[in-house]
Design a protein that fits this description.
It is a single chain. By secondary structure, this protein is mostly helical. It has a domain of about 50 residues. It is built from three helices and no strands. Helix 2 packs across helix 3. The radius of gyration is 21 Å and the shape is flat. The relative contact order is 0.07.
């Protein structure tokens, strides 16, 4: 095996580090675009540029809204469990 092949194979064994801050959530955009384009390409019988772009943009928007709402709900639940619940219980719950 060549050194290049070993390097490429080794890079797939170490996961990429993505933080949980707002800037790292920008990695979501290309993922959502790729998912929407592939999904629409497999579901549409005849691809016309204007209709395909419109349907794909609508799907991208709906996925982004759903992910944002889910993230806000999970953030609210985490905030309740970590900050509000211990205060109501008079100390640490765990």
């Amino acid at each position: 095996m060549t050194a290049l092949t070993c390097t490429v194979l080794a890079s797939f064994t170490t996961p990429m580090r993505i933080d949980t801050n707002a800037a790292s959530m920008l990695w979501l955009i290309p993922l959502v675009v790729a998912i929407a384009v592939v999904y629409k390409a497999t579901k549409v019988h005849q691809i016309r540029a204007r209709a395909f772009a419109k349907e794909t943009a609508l799907l991208i928007g709906s996925i982004m809204v759903f992910v944002t709402v889910a993230a806000l709900i999970l953030y609210g639940v985490a905030w309740l469990v970590t900050e509000q619940l211990p205060a109501m219980a008079g100390g640490s719950v765990f």
